[in-house]
Amino acid sequence: MSALVPPGSTDTVFSVDTLLKYMGDDDKARAVVTKIVRDACAPAMTPLLQAGQAIDEQRLADAGRIFHSLRGSVGNLGAKRLVTASLALELALAEQRVADIGPLLAAVETEYRLVLEQAGDWLARHAGGAAPA
């Protein structure tokens, strides 16, 4: 568990149950949600690599935009822990708190890897194929 997520937290790593419920929880809804999950996970680690490069190049605003976009796309998958970690990192980037960026980036990476893993497991169980690693 990341330093941003307190022990015993009920925040989710990944859950599309609510999304499925709102969409009718039928075969059509599962097909749509499967596409949403696949599309959200398709970039795999690319956004983190791009943001890391932006940080290395002192383009903190660019890195912040990458994390904002990632948070928006993956947040729809019930990734509350990733959203929390990303928001903290985005704030540190915006405020140029350089000393905080490394640990917060590590927390986002940990949470994002967990989302990708759980999304891949969900796809394997419900759609017959895993998300990209």
From TrEMBL:
| UniProt keyword Phosphoprotein present | yes
What region holds the HPt domain? Answer: 26-122
Q: Which SUPFAM superfamilies match?
A: Histidine-containing phosphotransfer domain, HPT domain
Q: Decide whether keyword Phosphoprotein is in the record.
A: yes
InterPro entries, per database record: HPT_dom_sf (IPR036641), Sig_transdc_His_kin_Hpt_dom (IPR008207)
Query: Annotated Gene Ontology MF terms?
Result: protein kinase activity
What GO terms in the biological process aspect are recorded for it?
A: phosphorelay signal transduction system
Sequence positions bearing Phosphohistidine: 68
The alphabetical list of record keywords is: Phosphoprotein, Two-component regulatory system
Q: What is this protein called?
A: Hpt domain-containing protein
